[in-house]
Amino acid sequence: MTDYSLDLNEDQLQMQKWVHDFAENVIRPVAPEYDEKEETPWEVIQEAANIGLYSWEALSSWFSDPTGLTFALVSEELAWGCAGIGLSILGTTLGVSGIVGSGTPEQIAEWVPECFGTPEDIHLAAFAVSEPDAGSDVSNLRTRAGYDEATDEWVLNGTKTWITNGGIDKVPNVHVVVASVEPELKGRGQASFVVPPGTKGLSMGQKFKKMGIRASHTAEVVLDEVRVPGRCLLGGKEKLDARMARAREGKSSRVQAAMSTFEASRPLVGAQALGIARAAYEYSLDYAKERKAFGRSIIENQGIAFKLADMKMELDAARLLVHRACWMGANGKEFTAGEGSMSKLKAGEVAVWATEQAIQILGGYGYVREYPVEKWHRDSKIYTIFEGTSEIQRLVIARAISGIRIP
């Protein structure tokens, strides 16, 4: 097991600077434009692919860091540049996490590179769990998967919603879909399926116009008699049948298909929230030192200085929780007190609070689009909603610390 340390090693520092420079020089100059247009930033994704930032090789190196911190550093820096554009670059990793979390080594080797493609032929991936009537309650999915033994195919039907990269057909797009095989078993009756690019029956429904992270594509995914080969069942049918049999007998089973991905991704989502909070803090600090009122810099007023002190304190506290959870995940340490949920909960709420403080420090300037803090505030709010609302995170933590199935 890798020892826990607050010090970043040389490789991590170099990676952090590399991504920060990309965020500063490539992402930030175009962030307001894509926020206004609410379009996928294909040019930025292309540039990320050109330099190797958008690739399965990069993702593999981040995941292979024994400290677990490299991916968190990358996530924070990209969101510091722009959370929406950062999520356009990182959104594919959600699909990858679904494959890695449930797939066999052979499936991982086949599909993970397919999720990214190459700089000459960029691909995307999407992870489709949420539904119109099943957001936080992922145990009651209505999307169904039925097995056609005659053709060795699975047939998927249903509608998914709030899906990052969902339904995009401009480039090849791998969808990882969580569906119910045996509805009466709730979450234990679910399985994950790869839907290859171009599969008939999969289409994009409504594309959502959002309050924040507007450069990230979010849409419904409609599955109408979607047929995928048997090999696209992640983990394989033998393993699924055995798991279903245990569940029918009332025996303990592994966590449901969707939750295995959420557990891995929540600290990294928290790292994205950190990037927004840090951007707001840094901008507010510079502004407060330069802005004059009544003959002195406004930071010389305790009311402003204390806000900034609290912002720095809360930001660092949230980062410690995120880094601890990432280290625990990378080193096989069990989240006995909901540490993954703690990190995402704290970072998301700090981002909302810190960006609101930034608006207050800037006053009227904080409320207009000529200044970036109002955008950061809009971007921050989703981090208390997606990947599990703040209320769900508190429920996870409460159940973990009490050992009681709190409804």
Molecular structure report:
- The two termini are 36 Å apart.
- By secondary structure, the chain is of the alpha+beta class.
- The protein folds into three domains: 10-117, Acyl-CoA dehydrogenase/oxidase, N-terminal domain (Butyryl-Coa Dehydrogenase, subunit A, domain 1), CATH 1.10.540; 121-248, Butyryl-CoA Dehydrogenase, subunit A, domain 2 (Beta Barrel), CATH 2.40.110.10; 257-402, Butyryl-CoA Dehydrogenase, subunit A, domain 3.
- The strands form four sheets. A four-stranded antiparallel beta sheet has the order 4-5-9-8, with no helix packed on it. Strands 3-6-7 form a three-stranded mixed beta sheet, covered by helices on one side. It has a two-stranded antiparallel ribbon with strand order 1-2.
- The protein has helices at residues 10-27, 31-37, 42-50, 56-63, 70-81, 83-90, 92-102, 105-116, 237-248, 257-290, 302-330, 339-362, 373-380, 390-402; strands at 117-118, 121-122, 124-128, 144-148, 153-164, 173-180, 190-195, 202-207, 218-229, 292-293, 296-297.
- The mean pLDDT is 94.
